[in-house]
Amino acid sequence: MSDELVRYSEGGQEFDAFIARPGGAGPHPAVLICHAWAGRDAFAEDKARALAELGYIAFAIDLYGVGRRGHDTASNQALMMPLIQDPPTLRRRLGAAFEAVSASPGVDRTRMGSIGFCFGGPRPPTALREIG
Question: Number of structural domains, the chain?
């Protein structure tokens, strides 16, 4: 297994996702992991590693931007609420994450899914395709 940070952009803003890859030859199915309201953290990255151990390419996405993370209720709400109140921007950011993982080496684009925590919630792969 290997892991790294991968940069991608949307709307002139930079994002960094944590990607964990299983060993062995691909292509592998992929799972996008949407973080809780504080932003991508160790919990989401640990889920990515666990999924990679099961044979998935796991992509813990970033919806806020490089280095933007919440630390308490007020800062978490300050990060999350603008996206909740602006669904088109949220859809564009989810779509950019989907495209970034889709373009990643070794991903089987016909076998992709997603999971989420608190802020994220599950989204069927067809919904993600419709976003982009």
Answer: 1
